[in-house]
């Protein structure tokens, strides 16, 4: 398992600069949601100089970038602006992560791999896909084949082992399998790092999955008929079973929320980079809230 991780970490994780272009920008990259002035002041009062510097500094940066972002008239500039915001936001967050891993959770097709690779690249972390590590660990080339030759339970046991092994490591972004959230023990492992839920509407998930096919996703690769409808029905059932488990995550990145903030009617207009930026903002909020809570508990001692 550890050799598998070492070998995989040598693989590159491309994406930056290759995102699609062509979307309207609405300047949503202001102060992150739930990141009010009141909370900043509270943070300052608690006297952690590292946080006060970051909070104030990043706020100026966001406001500055936000206005230039809104002025951009063409797609190239929008894409460059997004890349710049991503880079700056990662620089804000990185020192306070202290090497903690980031675990992305969410339904199949929610973009854990796509967004995870962007985050790993920009943070200088290694990227791992837990499905790939399971394939390596059991010596079978695909998840579909693992389900076929063994069972879902066998796959889940190995998925837990992989998450257990990853939990002692640092500086990783991990794209988990969509079902990793159903076993409580997996949360114990993932909570060694920061868990981020990519919350994507079911119709968008079904569209993405119908576009690429269900060969690699055995839970969706059943029955006949229209690929979109089939995926939508199955994803609806899975989401009803798992919806609550995803809410265990430390932070939620809602594509509907980002789209509304950017003035898009549809989440399909969002670039993976925009989603990665929102993820970094949510990580920042989480880290600040945690710092406030731990400072408060020190003060009460
Ligand atoms: N923001 C996005 N917009 C459009 N398509 C996306 C986006 N993010 C991911 N995709 C596509 O959706 C599919 C599933 O993405 P992936 O990252 O593999 O999801 P997961 O790892 O959560 O299963 C891929 O074909 C990917 O290219
Ligand atoms: O939701 C699930 O139960 C699964 C999701 C898949 O991963 P992705 O979320 O990366 O597709 C993979 O682990 C397996 O097919 C089961």
Automatic annotation (TrEMBL):
Catalyzes the specific phosphorylation of the 3-hydroxyl group of shikimic acid using ATP as a cosubstrate. It is an enzyme of class 2 (transferase). Belongs to the shikimate kinase family. It is found in: Plastid, Chloroplast. This is shikimate kinase. PROSITE patterns: SHIKIMATE_KINASE (PS01128). Its cofactor is Mg(2+). The keyword Protease does not apply. The lineage of its organism: Eukaryota, Viridiplantae, Streptophyta, Embryophyta, Tracheophyta. Keywords: Amino-acid biosynthesis, Aromatic amino acid biosynthesis, ATP-binding, Chloroplast, Kinase, Magnesium, Metal-binding, Nucleotide-binding, Plastid, Transferase, Transit peptide. Pathway: Metabolic intermediate biosynthesis; chorismate biosynthesis; chorismate from D-erythrose 4-phosphate and phosphoenolpyruvate: step 5/7. Its EC number is 2.7.1.71. It holds the Pfam family SKI. GO terms for cellular component: chloroplast; cytosol. It catalyses: shikimate + ATP = 3-phosphoshikimate + ADP + H(+). It comes from Phoenix dactylifera. SUPFAM superfamilies: P-loop containing nucleoside triphosphate hydrolases. One of its GO terms (molecular function) is metal ion binding. One of its GO terms (biological process) is aromatic amino acid family biosynthetic process.
């Amino acid at each position: 398992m550890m050799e598998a991780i070492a070998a995989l970490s040598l693989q590159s994780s491309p994406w930056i600069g290759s995102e699609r272009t062509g979307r309207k920008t609405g300047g949503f990259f202001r102060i992150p949601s739930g990141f009010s002035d009141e909370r900043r002041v509270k943070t300052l009062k608690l006297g952690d100089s590292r946080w006060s510097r970051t909070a104030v500094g990043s706020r100026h940066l966001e406001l500055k970038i936000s206005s230039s972002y809104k002025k951009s008239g063409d797609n190239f500039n929008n894409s460059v602006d997004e890349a710049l915001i991503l880079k700056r936001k990662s620089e804000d967050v990185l020192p306070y992560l202290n090497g903690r891993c980031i675990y992305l959770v969410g339904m199949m097709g929610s973009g854990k791999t796509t967004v995870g690779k962007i985050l790993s690249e920009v943070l200088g972390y290694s990227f791992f896909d837990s499905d790939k590590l399971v394939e390596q660990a059991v010596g079978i080339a695909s998840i579909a084949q693992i389900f076929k030759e063994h069972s879902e339970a066998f796959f889940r046991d190995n998925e837990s082992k992989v998450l257990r092994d990853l939990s002692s490591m640092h500086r990783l972004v991990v794209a988990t399998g969509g079902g990793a959230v159903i076993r409580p023990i997996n949360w114990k492992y993932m909570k060694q790092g920061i868990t981020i839920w990519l919350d994507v509407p079911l119709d968008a998930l079904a569209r993405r999955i119908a576009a690429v096919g269900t060969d690699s996703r055995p839970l969706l690769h059943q029955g006949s008929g229209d690929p979109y409808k089939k995926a939508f029905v199955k994803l609806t059932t899975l989401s009803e079973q798992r919806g609550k488990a995803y809410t265990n995550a430390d932070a939620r990145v809602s594509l509907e929320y980002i789209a509304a903030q950017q003035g898009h009617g549809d989440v399909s207009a969002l670039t993976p980079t925009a989603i990665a930026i929102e993820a970094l903002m949510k990580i920042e909020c989480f880290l600040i809230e945690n710092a406030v809570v731990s400072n408060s508990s020190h003060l009460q001692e």
